[in-house]
């Protein structure tokens, strides 16, 4: 149990050393705040760190990571940019994998690969017909991604008024479901089902899931090249927690004996 007086030494107390808490604590420490990061487990990382049991490692959550690329069609990836800001980019090695997912449907299997060409090749290899409108669909997804990113990065809402070209698409598709758009653009059921296969990540079936969210998800997978870090658990999941912990201010665990990962602020 931490003494109440301990809290007086800090500007900010962050509860939970998952990737969210680690990132917040590291950015606050970087901004000069005195940060205490409190974690109830004996290890940092939350859902992005595997559980170890004897010689075995179990994935508990994340297995793919996007945005590790220093450069891509939309600029530096977000994870890379974060690590750069924290001066931790050199501490991480991300290993791109291809394909990042293999979709198996009754009677067909297709490798979902990152990079526009590889993605189209994988999909059309399994479905030689029915994908005539795929390039237009991918263009639309990229446009929506660019627009959404501009909205997220806009420092002031009225800044958006200076970028009139980004709003019409976002407004047009704001209420569209995956099914609304994909059934129109890819009428052939089999390639469409294959293209929609990652809908569980959105938590809703294509009839209810947002087309905008699907477009953003697919664009990060396809275009944030060289895409994700190593699949499976071990190496990459250690990559983020360790350097982030090293920059996250003072960290302590509620598990006894209390363990300190880092004493330094930055
Ligand atoms: C099965 C699965 C698959 C996923 N796949 C991917 C993927 O491929 N790619 C991807 O990018 N994302 C993926 N995600 C999502 C990603 O893992 C999470 O979004 C991310 O890890 C959440 O981080 P967080 O810091 O918000 O929360 P968490 O990782 O849950 O961390 C919360 C931390 O707070 C601690 N804590 C909780 N309560 C307290 C308390 N009272 N006091 C002190 N500490 C406390 C916990 O012990 C934990 O360490 C997946 C998630 C799941 C579940």
List the keywords.
alpha/beta, FAD/NAD(P)-binding domain, 2 domains, two-stranded antiparallel sheet, disordered C terminus, binds flavin-adenine dinucleotide
Write a structural description.
With 266 residues, the protein is of the alpha/beta class. The protein has two domains: 4-67 and 231-253, FAD/NAD(P)-binding domain, CATH 3.50.50.60; 101-223. It contains ten helices and seven strands. The chain has helices spanning 19-30, 78-85, 116-126, 134-153, 167-172, 178-185, 189-195, 211-223, 234-239, 241-246, and strands spanning 12-15, 35-39, 51-53, 56-58, 101-105, 108-112, 250-253. It has a three-stranded parallel sheet, covered by helices on one side. Strands 3-4 form a two-stranded antiparallel sheet. A two-stranded antiparallel sheet has the order 5-6. Strand 3 (51-53) and strand 4 (56-58) form a beta hairpin. The two termini are 25 Å apart. Mean pLDDT is 80; it is low at 226-238 and 254-266. Bound molecules: flavin-adenine dinucleotide.
């Amino acid at each position: 149990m931490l003494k109440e007086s301990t809290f007086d030494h800090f500007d900010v107390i962050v509860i939970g050393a998952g990737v969210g808490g680690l990132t917040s604590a590291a950015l606050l420490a970087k901004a000069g705040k005195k940060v205490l990061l409190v974690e109830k487990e004996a290890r940092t990382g939350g859902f992005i760190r595997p559980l170890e049991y004897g010689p075995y490692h179990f994935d508990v959550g994340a297995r793919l990571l996007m945005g590790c690329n220093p450069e891509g069609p939309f600029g530096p990836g977000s994870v890379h940019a974060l690590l750069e800001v924290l001066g931790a980019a050199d501490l991480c090695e991300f290993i791109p994998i291809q394909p990042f997912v293999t979709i198996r449907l009754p009677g067909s299997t297709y490798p979902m690969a990152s990079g526009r060409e590889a993605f189209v090749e994988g999909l059309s290899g399994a479905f030689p017909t029915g994908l005539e409108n795929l390039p237009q669909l991918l263009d639309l997804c990229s446009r929506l991604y660019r627009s959404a990113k501009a909205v997220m990065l806009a420092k002031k809402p009225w800044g958006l008024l200076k970028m009139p070209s980004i709003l019409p698409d976002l407004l047009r598709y704001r209420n569209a479901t995956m099914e609304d758009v994909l059934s129109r653009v890819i009428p052939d059921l089999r390639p469409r089902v294959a293209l929609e296969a990652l809908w569980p990540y959105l938590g809703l079936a294509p009839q209810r899931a947002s087309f905008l969210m699907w477009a953003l998800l697919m664009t990060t997978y396809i275009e944030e090249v060289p895409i994700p870090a190593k699949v499976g658990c071990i190496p990459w999941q250690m990559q983020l927690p360790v350097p982030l912990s090293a920059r996250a201010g003072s960290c302590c665990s509620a598990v006894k004996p209390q363990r300190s990962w880092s004493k330094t602020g930055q």
